[in-house]
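Thread title: Can someone regenerate the structure for this chain?

I was given the following input by a collaborator and told the matching structure tokens would be attached. They weren't. Posting the sequence so someone can regenerate them.
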Amino acid sequence: MTVIGLTGGIASGKSLASEHFDELGAQIINGDLLGHASYAPGTRGFDKVVAEFGEDIVGVNGEIDRAVFGPRIFASPDGLEKLNSIVWPEIRLLAEAEISRIKAEDNDVVIVLEAAVLIEADWQDLCDEVWVVSVPVDITRSRLMERNNLDEASAQARIESQMSMEEREDFADVVIRNDSSVAEFNNRVEEAWISLLERVGT
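Best answer:
Regenerated them for you:
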């Protein structure tokens, strides 16, 4: 079994790469889905989040109301840091459980753990290799402006709030560039996949 940690900045194309790896035969663990599960009702994460941010973030359906919760996180300068300190350990536990479950079913499988915060949360030890989807800042900015209907300043602010492309690449075993067409990006994903299979002898 080989575990690939797939990461990259906002609008980098992580999800597109992950979808292609799925088509190529990898088992995908989606960090965003684990993030939502980490504070679902009835979980330890849910209790900790509610205790930290207030009972009123819980909606009438018993789940955390994101319309209330989102602004609450950013209402204080350390709100996001507090949230991360709660959910990152819970997400890690869920990822470890998923890796163990998949391994038990097929020890020869390649697992792709797609996680935007893989490096920031220090989850590299869960992976055999770290793969970074890398995009130049100007392309990321343009994609964000179009995708999220943002002005240039707002798009740039979102980019600057994250780890830089160069910092991510410092942690990478493999860098996949996403600076041209979707077809070319898919070709690069396939090349990385074939190279991996050659390395691990699958």
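The chain has two domains: 1-26+109-202, 33-107.
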